Structures are given as C-alpha cells and as structure tokens.
Amino acid sequence: MQPEIALHTRPLPPARRAAPWLLLAACVAAPAIVPAQQSRRGVLHGQVVARATRDSIPAARVVVDTRDTVAADTSGRFELAREPGQYTLEVSAVGYSPGVWHIRLREGKTLQHVFELEPAYQLAGVVVEATPGSIGRRFADFERRRHARMGYFITKEQIERAGSATLIDILVTVRGVEQVCLTNDCIAKMVRSPPGCYPQYFLDGTESTPYFARNTPPQDIQGIEIYRGSSETPGEFIGSNSGCGVIAIWTKSSP
Predict the structure, then answer these.
(1) DSSP code of 69?
(2) Which CATH architecture has domain 132-251?
(3) Domain with CATH 2.170.130.10 in the chain
C-alpha cells in the first residue's frame, strides 16, 4: 500500500551564495541617512532707555514684524531669539515717542543693542494739594452711584492694596472686562461688546480721549467707575461711545 505523503530522503541542494558584486551593488544603492541639521537661532539682547538721560524705561513693549510682542522687564531689558534673518522692531513706552529699528540676526550669533526713545511730551512739575472737603464734594456722586450698585466701583484703598503698575492691570480684575492687545498697545474692552467696540472714558467727570485716560498712573487715582453696558450706564455718562461701555476715572488732584 502506497503512503499518501511521500518522504523524500534525497539531500537538498546546497544554498547558493550571493555573488560578491551583488552585495557591493546593494551597499552602493542604499542611500545614507543623514540627520537634518537645524539652523541655530540668532539672539538679540536689548535694553530700552531714555535718550536724554540714559535712564532705563521699564515695561517697554517691543513688537516684532507687527505680530509678536515682547515686554521689557523693570530695567528695560528684553531678549529676542529668532531664526536667522531680518526683522523690524517697533519699540514703545508710555510717555515716549515710538521708534522703529531694522535688525539682522545671524545664525548662532548674539547681538546687543540699546534702543533710545525720545519723550513724547514734558510737563513741568506741579504740586496740587486738595483738602478733604473738596475730595468729599467731588465723590458725593461717586458714593451715591456706588450704593445704587448699578455698575462696578474700585476705591483708592483697593487700588493701593492691589499695587498694580498700570490702569489696565486694575481694569481686567473686573468681571466682564477683558484685555485686548493691538499692534503695540493693550486696552480694556467689555466682554459683551462686539469686536472693535471699545469703552468711552471719562476723566474727572469730563469725556476724555482713551489715550490720556488709560495712561493715568494708578497712584493718582481716587476711584474708578465701570459700566459694562447701556443698561448700567447712568445719564451723566452717556457719551459718544458709551454703548460700548463706560470707564470713569477720578483722580486725587482734580479741583
């Protein structure tokens, strides 16, 4: 009887060795994998100073190619690390005229530069003394509106406890107020207002331009009233742009 599977006992032929020239061709054809080399960034170490006095300007803003913003520290120093190439820097600070510089960063190199700004304006030193009675009279309506609870109110004591460096730092602590940074400036905006709709400012009861009002030093402020919409705003603060909200600032030195 024949088996279903036949077992072949004949030895298998020996394995064939690859020709040496085939091995050499394979080695030559295989491309070598070389890791990509990344260019090393160029670095700028800058300092912002006043041109006349050479005093450092703290918290200056540096805008790179109108997109990215770098903030200087309390000594006016900042650091910028970017890919090699040419960049445009716009340097600005409160009370100074902005300046524009063109720089070139080279691969793996560090550039150091001092950026000098000119004062935008100079005011003669004036000392104003206010009696407790005059401050009380000016703030009678402030207190009346504060007790009516129609808006949000920040007192001198709250400002002093916060120790904020700028007005915007105070305003963004209020619920319903946000910070919006434009090309070279950060401003307050009501959260419920549509894009491009910014609040109307009043300075010591008079409608004011946003620039001068929002650059009022916190240490000079006696109180702030914030109305986040038309439904909150009292009649005395209805102005040209009050539909986007109202920020009323009262200073210590106003007569």
Answers:
(1) E
(2) Beta Complex (2.170)
(3) 132-251
- Which residue in 181, 197, 195, 188 sits closest to 230, CA to CA? 197
Question: Whole-model pTM above 0.70?
Answer: no
Look at residues 146, 142, 150, 143 and name the one whose alpha carbon lies nearest to residue 231: 150
As a whole-number percent, the residues of the chain with pLDDT over 70 amount to 75
User: Coil, strand or helix: which one is 253?
Assistant: coil
Tokens found for residue 24: 């050499």
114-123 mean pLDDT: 75
Transcribe 177-199 into DSSP letters: EEEEE-SS-EEEEETTSPTT--P
In the block, tokens 């006016």 appear at 76
| Residue burial 171-189, b: 16+ Cβ < 10 Å; e: rest | beebeebeeeeeeebbbbb
Residue 214 burial (CB count, 10 A): 23
C-alpha to C-alpha distance for 79 and 71, rounded to whole angstroms: 9
Domain with CATH 2.60.40.1120 in the chain: 42-119
Q: Tell me which CATH homologous superfamily contains domain 42-119.
A: Carboxypeptidase-like, regulatory domain (2.60.40.1120)
Question: Are the C-beta atoms of residues 119 and 95 closer than 8 Å to each other?
Answer: yes
* Max intra-chain CA distance, the chain: 130
* Residue found by looking up tokens 């009675």 in the block: 133
Residues 42, 223: Cα–Cα separation, whole Å: 46
Q: Which one, of 56, 84, 61, lies nearest residue 71 by Cα? A: 61
Q: Residue 153's beta-bridge partner residues?
A: 225
Distance CA 211, CA 230 (A): 22
Question: What are phi and psi for residue 241, nearest 5 degrees?
Answer: -135, 25
For the stretch 142-182, pLDDT in tens is 888 888 777 899 988 888 888 888 888 888 888 889 888 87
